Amino acid sequence: MESKNRLQENGHKSIDWGSLISIQSILYSILGVFSAMIALEGFMLPNHFLDGGVTGISILVEEILQVPFTYLLVVFNLPFLYLGYRRIGKTFAFRALLSILMLTVLMHFIEIPAVTEDKVLIAVFGGFLIGLGIGLVIKAGGVLDGIEIMALYTTRKSAFSTAEIIIAFNALIFLSAAFVFDIETAMYSFLVYFTAARTTDYVVDGFEEFTALTIISGECEEVKSLIVNEFGKAITVYKGERGYLPNSFKVKHDCDIVMTIVTRLEIHRIKEATLQIDPNAFFFVQRIKEVKGGIGKHTSKNL
After folding, report:
1. pLDDT-based confidence at residue 94 (cuts at 50, 70, 90)
2. Which pLDDT band, with edges at 50, 70 and 90, does 160 fall under?
3. N or C: where does the chain have the smaller number of CB atoms within 10 Å of the terminal CB?
4. Mutual orientation of helices 69-87 and 147-154 as an angle, nearest 10°?
5. Are 226 and 165 contained in the same domain?
6. What average pLDDT score do residues 102-121 get?
7. What distance in Å separates the CA atoms of residue 174 and residue 81, rounded to the nearest whole number?
8. Which residue among 165, 181, 205 closes a domain?
9. Domain of 142, in residue numbers
């Protein structure tokens, strides 16, 4: 899961008590912990299904050594929380510790019976609920699984990205699950992990998936008017040049490069409307993680 920037944004060099006790953060943490608890007790643990990271390691070690899962979850997360304290900040580490302790305490005192024995339902809904829980806790400024902290720390000392480190680490966990349990359990556990990862991304990044749409057109004035006046979007204009084709390198023209922030629901309509003005218009789209300020997050009035 791509959480490097999320963790950095949520960390502080010293504990921010005002942020720590905010109603929104507390609510996200409580909902996230309850969602993860239902996933673990109602779906995953009774059927030996794993998620990735520290959660998966704890389930494996519980099966091998018969040590309670809740104890292992705290112990295995402590080194990562220390790295988070050193690398990200006190506020982040404190939030993460509180969330993990809350989860273990609730699991110790609240017993949830297995919801179903259907393996596909367990993998899908177990993954969805634990992904929802992890995502909500990240939005609150903490984590329920310390593996992402390790990936953030190791990227400073290696050429691998955060995602590559997490995938490699989890691959070892699922291979181990194939030996400790069986191949089928390992395969279903991968489905749990995939569902959880996608759910976490949606919770943290949002469902709208804002993108930067850039348009280069010879009819730039009409294109600008279309986007602003017809679709109600704010734009940014860069001054540039177009041309430089292989067979006519010396031919060039000044142009305005138009960039606007849109959702995936708006991309097709804006592109179609722009092509009505200029069939030769050039587009490129870039996914962005977050949008703040301005009117970029306003949806189109034509949708």
Report:
1. confident
2. low
3. C
4. 30
5. no
6. 91
7. 23
8. 205
9. 4-205
Instruction: Tell me which residue of 262, 303, 266, 255 sits closest to 286, measured CA to CA.
Output: 262
Taking each helix axis from N to C end, the angle separating 119-140 and 90-109, rounded to the nearest 10 degrees, works out to 140
Q: Which residue has the tokens 């080194």?
A: 79
Q: Calculate mean pLDDT across residues 234-251.
A: 83
Domain count, the chain: 2
- Tell me the C-alpha to C-alpha distance, in Å, between residue 56 and each of 137, 269, 279: 18, 44, 52
* pLDDT for position 300: 42
Same domain, 264 and 226: yes
User: Lowest-confidence range among 132-136, 244-248, 282-286?
Assistant: 244-248
**Is 193 in the same domain as 239?**
no
- The three-class DSSP label of residue 89 is coil
pTM: 0.69
- How far apart are the C-alpha atoms of 192 and 121, rounded to whole Å? 10
* Domain endpoint, select from 157, 178, 205: 205
Confidence tier at 47 by pLDDT (50, 70, 90): confident
Looking at residue 168, its amino acid is A
Residue 23 within any structural domain of the chain: yes
Q: DSSP letter for 21, please.
A: T
β-strands 282-287, 211-216 pairing:
antiparallel
Residues 58, 192 share a domain = yes
Token pair 């990227």: residue: 155
Within the chain, strands assigned E span 211-216, 235-245, 248-262, 282-287
